[in-house]
Design brief:
Largest sheet of chain B: none
Distance between the termini of chain A: 70 Å
CATH class of the largest domain in chain A: Alpha Beta
Chains: A alpha/beta (299), B mainly alpha (295), C mainly alpha (254)
CATH architecture of the largest domain in chain A: 3-Layer(aba) Sandwich
Largest interface: B-C, 62 and 51 residues
Number of strands of chain A: 10
CATH superfamily of the largest domain in chain A: P-loop containing nucleotide triphosphate hydrolases
Number of strands of chain B: 0
Strand content of chain A: 15-25%
Oligomer: heterotrimer
Order of helices and strands of chain B: HHHHHHHHHHHH
Structural class of chain B: mainly alpha
Distance between the termini of chain B: 30 Å
Order of helices and strands of chain A: HHEEEHEEEHHHEHEHEEHHH
Number of helices of chain B: 12
Largest sheet of chain A: 6 strands, mixed
CATH topology of the largest domain in chain A: Rossmann fold
Radius of gyration of chain B: 23 Å
Helix content of chain B: over 70%
Shape of chain B: globular
Shape of chain A: globular
Number of domains of chain B: 1
Chain lengths: 299, 295, 254
């Protein structure tokens, strides 16, 4: 009986499988209880970037904690690469970056990575090269001898990511990786996630900021009050089937009038007409990049 | 194959956590306690000029060993109480336990870190104490030899013997070992309390309470076992105290040792065994509660 | 929460298991320390040192509390407050009955210092009352030492102190000799205890023969023992016992 799930190819293929998961927190001294997650079913396929989206308090962190075995489910179960989350060995090939991580402030960046490396039984020269590699990857080589108490939020997030990668995991779980990080820092983190995907690492992340993760997620699930309300490929989810947008450059007023007329003639309705704008975030990024590059030129 | 490796118990992993805990505790400036101890010793020796050497040595020993006992208990309680709650507050526990580390290894690592700290502090305090006592003994000895240079050999021998008898005695170190065991026991018990306590203050208050009750436990136990006339409420209370609380009085052998009572080796071994047993049981209870803890 | 309750149940079960061993252990501790550590929990102590001191005494602060009181006693002695010295030393010795030093000091303060002060008390013109007060202090000193000996039967210094008290304050040579002898039989005794015992014996009427045997034994034992006093006492006894001249010790030793 126990062997059955392992034999089915689909089961083994899923990096994360959540089946019928519910989590109820009893409220002390009252008869009430709070349901954080209700009957959740979820699958993250190996190699994809999955975004668990939803507003604050929708049960994202709870779900991630249960998947990582940090909390116990009330009902249902979760598995990582086919192993139940309650087993220590399910976390063998997993890296985790919690929300707003605080590490031991008295350690330097390098010491932090060495500590976590030792916990994963990475030793000796392998640990040394791995630490160097990861510091390089997250761009903290220059800050490696600084205490974490002097790190900025973005740097902490990056050292946290490096720490999650120390044991060369096949699955990386990131809880709100871009929360509280400035746009440049958040872009760096997104680039790192894309980089992970290219190396074939599965990424499961949670976020309440849809715009920040929409460009990197293959699939997203939207949680609201502990229930999965939507799930699927991002383009599918946000596409509005009966609408389409044209973006024109150098179009004369006459041409626009012509197109509007054509549209009316073929029973279509023009809903909106506006000048294109960029997103504020993109504007900010461009502006900071420009100032950086002009500063370089000035030298 | 690598799966095997991860599943097994790993002393190296525990050691990594212990060392980290030791650094953490050191950064919390717990070693100021040692400074306090040094000041106490120096203060003592200044103040003691008015006493004879026998009185001086007696007081020096009592104060040093008493302070060692109290400071190590304090370090054990205050140092341990913060460890787990702090990690949970800072969410460092997530990053650690999201790695393939069994929870008991994490707890053992933390506890061993504290035990390491206690061992270092007690070793330093003992070293300081031994040096001070030895220097004082030498000084008194030299003075006596100078003053009594014309006295008959027999009187001189008697005086020297008296100084030696009042001075440093190797048995004291076994007393220190028992102080260490008591501190270990308290650290393990604090760890247990901290796994279900909601605040650090609660843990510390409970432990201070345990410290005092623990010293009265033997009295409560005797009363419970021998006094049949007490009412059932009193008897139940005494029974709970006798069964749940550790007998801390059993670890105060050092009082007797300083007083010059020779403690048989068997008795010492039994006391040590009791201490180790308590430490193990409390660690086990802490692990049990921690396994069920929602993080 | 249920896990916490279960953990406590576990501790309770362990408590039942450990109980006999722990109980046996504390009985052994007690017998190792001379059967007196139960003093600590008795009401007598609580009366003497008050509630706070009682809790302190039971919480591993016993030795420190005793030292603190001892230092106070020392200060009281410097101010010649004899009643307070007595009061404090009673507490100190109750707290730390296994430290011979405290018994010794208590007795010395009573029998030597307080008694002398009582004898020279300018506020008491009547000699008879001064003598009476002095005797009372002798008795207090004796009482401290007797209890000290009871608590520490293997400590030569307390026997010796008691012997000195009998010798110097009571002129009781038989008792003095007896306690010097007891001290000399214990490990760590001073080498002169045996000799002192014999000296005291030589003053006892009717026990001259016994004293002579002792002193002669010491004389014969080693060159070191042939001190002026020993020779003087031996010659005195030779005279008194009419020892035949050929058995007497040679004169040149004098």
């Amino acid at each position: 009986m126990n062997d059955l799930p392992r034999r089915s190819g689909a089961e083994a293929g899923a990096a994360v499988a959540v089946e019928g998961l519910s989590k109820v927190f009893p409220v002390p001294f009252r008869r009430k209880s709070i349901t954080a997650v209700r009957d959740l079913n979820l699958r993250v396929e190996a190699g994809e970037v999955y975004g668990l989206l939803g507003p604050n308090g929708s049960g994202k962190s709870t779900t991630l904690k249960i998947i990582l075995g940090l909390a116990a489910p009330t009902r249902g179960r979760t598995k990582i690469f086919g192993r139940d989350s309650s087993l220590v060995e399910s976390r063998q090939a997993v890296g985790f970056l919690p929300e707003n991580p605080y590490f031991y402030k008295f350690l330097t960046g390098e010491e932090t990575l060495r500590f976590f490396g030792k916990l994963c039984r990475v030793n000796g020269s392998r640990l040394k090269s791995r630490v160097r590699e990861l510091l390089e990857l997250v761009g903290l080589t220059n800050a490696r001898d600084q205490r974490l108490s002097t790190y900025s939020k973005g740097m902490l997030q990056r050292i946290g990511l490096a720490q999650a990668l120390i044991n060369e995991p096949k699955l990386v779980v990131l809880d709100e990786p871009t929360a509280g990080v400035d746009p440049a820092g958040s872009r760096d983190i997104r680039n790192l996630i894309v980089d992970l995907k290219q190396r074939g690492i599965t990424v499961l992340l949670s976020s309440h900021l849809l715009t920040q993760v929409q460009e990197i997620c293959d699939r997203v699930g939207i949680l609201a009050r502990g229930v999965l309300v939507r799930e699927g490929h991002l383009e599918e989810l946000i596409a509005i089937e009966n609408r389409c947008e044209l973006v024109l450059e150098n179009a004369s007023e006459a041409l626009v009038k012509e197109i509007e007329k054509l549209a009316t003639n073929s029973n279509a309705r023009l809903i909106d007409r506006r000048k294109s704008t960029t997103t504020l975030e993109r504007l900010f990024l461009e502006a900071t990049q420009e100032s950086e590059s002009s500063a370089k030129h000035a030298k | 194959m690598s799966e095997r490796l991860h599943r097994g118990f790993s002393p190296a992993r525990i050691f990594a956590i212990s060392i980290n805990t030791l650094i953490e505790l050191t950064r919390q400036k717990v070693f100021y306690v040692l400074l306090l101890f040094a000041l106490l010793l120096i203060g003592c020796s200044v103040f003691m000029a008015r006493f004879t050497f026998q009185q001086e040595f007696q007081i020096l020993k009592d104060i040093s060993l008493g302070a060692m006992s109290i400071f190590s208990a304090l370090l054990a309680i205050v140092g341990t109480a913060r460890l787990i709650p702090q990690d949970i507050d800072d969410r460092t526990v997530y990053t650690i336990l999201a790695k393939p580390i069994p929870r008991f290894e994490y707890l053992l690592g933390k506890l061993f870190g504290v035990l390491l700290l206690l061992a270092i502090s007690i070793a330093l305090m003992s070293a300081l104490f031994v040096v001070v006592l030895y220097v004082r003994e030498r000084t008194v000895l030299n003075e006596t030899l100078r003053q009594m240079s014309r006295a008959p050999g027999e009187q001189l021998d008697a005086a020297v013997n008296a100084i030696r008898a009042a001075g440093l005695n190797i048995d004291i170190l076994t007393g220190v070992a028992v102080i260490y065991l008591k501190a270990c026991l308290l650290a393990a018990l604090t760890l247990f309390v901290s796994t279900f306590a909601t605040t650090n203050i609660f843990t510390v208050v409970v432990m201070v309470f345990v410290y005092f009750i623990g010293h009265l436990q033997a009295t409560a136990r005797e009363y419970w076992l021998e006094e049949q006339s007490a009412g059932w409420v009193a008897r139940t209370f005494l029974a709970i105290v006798a069964l749940i609380f550790p007998d801390l009085q059993a670890f105060n052998l050092v009082d007797e040792i300083v007083a010059g009572v020779a403690i048989p080796l068997v008795l010492l071994a039994k006391t040590a065994l009791l201490g180790i047993f308590y430490t193990a049981i409390y660690t086990l209870a802490a692990t049990f509660v921690f396994y069920g803890k929602e993080l | 929460m249920s896990r916490v309750l279960f953990a406590f149940a576990m501790l309770l079960a362990f408590g039942v298991m450990k109980l006999p061993a722990e109980h046996a252990l504390s009985l052994q501790h007690r017998s190792a320390s001379g059967g007196q550590s139960d003093d600590i929990a008795n009401l007598d102590l609580r009366e003497k040192i008050g509630q706070l001191g009682f809790v302190a005494a039971l919480s591993g602060f016993r030795a420190m509390l005793a030292d603190f009181l001892f230092i106070q006693a020392h200060a009281a002695w410097e101010r010649t407050e004899w009643g307070r010295v007595l009061f404090l030393f009673r507490q100190v010795t109750t707290l730390q009955p296994h430290v011979p030093l405290f018994w010794d000091m208590a007795a010395w303060h009573m029998a030597w210092n307080a008694s002398a002060a009582a004898m020279n008390d300018p506020s008491q013109p009547r000699l008879a009352l001064r003598v009476k007060a002095q005797r009372e202090y002798f008795a207090l000193g004796k009482d401290f030492l007797e209890r000290g000996v009871k608590n520490n039967p293997d400590k030569p210094q307390l026997h010796e102190a008691l012997a000195r008290l009998y010798r110097d304050k009571y002129n009781d040579h038989a008792r003095a000799s007896e306690y010097f002898a007891k001290a000399s039989a214990l490990p760590g005794a001073a080498s002169y205890d045996k000799r002192f015992s014999a000296y005291e014996l030589s003053y006892c009427e009717g026990r001259e023969r016994e004293a002579y045997e002792c002193l002669h034994g010491l004389y014969a034992k080693s060159e070191k023992e042939r001190l002026p006093t020993l020779i003087k006492r031996l010659k005195f006894l030779e005279e008194k016992l009419n020892v035949p001249p050929e058995q007497r010790i040679p004169d040149k030793e004098r």
